[in-house]
Each structure stands twice: as C-alpha cells, then as structure tokens.
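USER:
Working in pairs, take the chain set out below, taking as long as you need, and write a paragraph about the fold.
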Amino acid sequence: MSKIENDLKDADSYCMFSLYYQGLVKSRGHFENQADIVRTLAHRFSSKEVRILDAACGTGDVLALLANEFLSISGLDGSPEMLKYALSNKLLEGVPLTCCRWNNLDSFFSRTGKYDLIYLLGNSIAHTENLSSFIEILGSILVNGLSKNGVLAFDMRDWVWDQEKRHLIQPNRPIGVEKTLESITVDRSEIAVTETCTYDPERQYVKYKIIREDRAVECTLSYLMMDVQAAKKFIYQIGFSSVDMPSSIKPKYPIIIARKA
C-alpha cells in the first residue's frame, strides 16, 4: 500500500497494521490466488527469464511464493514499513526490493530497465491519490516500464453503483458502522482490529483500529473508486493495445490485463 490518507499518531503504528495485514491476507488465501494469477500470465512468455515486477509488493508474500520459479523477479513498494517485512524474508534473499513511490516510477525504470510483466494486485492501484495520478502511473508503466508486448495486470474491488447515494460503494461492507475483524496471533500476542467504512463521491475510507495488548492505534486507508468499464476506457486512452482476461484465471476481485504493442 502506498498512500496513507492521515498522519499516523506515532512512528510504529503502521508497523502494527503491517503485521495484521500480512496475517489476515495470508489467512484468507489472497497471496496464493495472486501468485496463481502471476504464474498464468508469466507462462504466456516463452522464456523462464521473463522479467517480472511486483509494483506493490507490500510485505513480499506473493514474491516469496514465486521467487524460486522465475529467474528475474523484483518488487517495489512505497511503504518502508511494509517493505521491511519483505526484506527480512529469507525466501526473498537475492530478490531486488526497492522502496519507491509511484510518482518516482520513471526514475526507477531508468535504473532497472523494462519488464515483461508488471502487476499491482490486492487493489493496490486504488491507493493512488486521484484519477490524474492513476493515469500518470499507468502511462509511466506503458512508456518506460514495459517491454514490447509486455503485460500489465491490476485488480479492483467489485464496486457497484448506489442509486440513493449517487456514487460507487463496496457491497456487503457496512457504512459508518464499526465492525470487528478477525484477530490474529503474532509472537504469541493477539492483534485485534476493527474497521469503519465511509465514503465521499470518489473515494472509500476505511479507518482501522489496531489493538495489541493494552495499546490501540488508528490509521485510515483510502481507495479511489472506479468500475471495470471505466478503467478499461482509460487503459485504451493511455495507449495500451489490448485488454483481455484469460478464462483460466480465477481472481478473487475483478482484474484488468493490458498489453503493450
């Protein structure tokens, strides 16, 4: 995750959320599903030396599932707190990992060269600040990040239009109600979390309260809302040559796959 909408109360509060994020997402099977998506897309290329970039690698768990399968795989993330867990993962020894915000992608690509496959999964692209930033990020990937015939993949939440509120919402997520999520155990210490979801016309805001032992901190993450058809329209406008979805991929969320000519 690369954008935190509010200033956190102290330096390690997002570290606490990172611990919870890693445990919760792993327990729901999201990392394995995302790794399967990457494998399916990577196998479209003839060589095992296909260059792959996880452009929102977070705690590095998807990379860890793939590291032994591909010769050239890298990760970047805009959050040093998330990335430190990837850097401490022994399965990722030798895998290039970089702390880089998306507004610095052009500089990153000038140092690393281009990739055959770039993916941003886990609804990470929605952390971009606004529509203009969304377009700039994908434009940077197209022009400077992807090789010829390279592939970009990103997923989105299954937003639906709410006629009464006159904007998109995420179905089955209560609005304005503090909801208790699953607890996880880290280092024999229980981490409990609640979330409260609110909206404005363009963004969803999820306030998390993280409780560990006798200490609680809060952070709010926000997500740009955009339906799949709108995203596909912008993909074509940016200049990608095709948008497709292999039937063999079974994502947990809507996914867009775009190719560079």
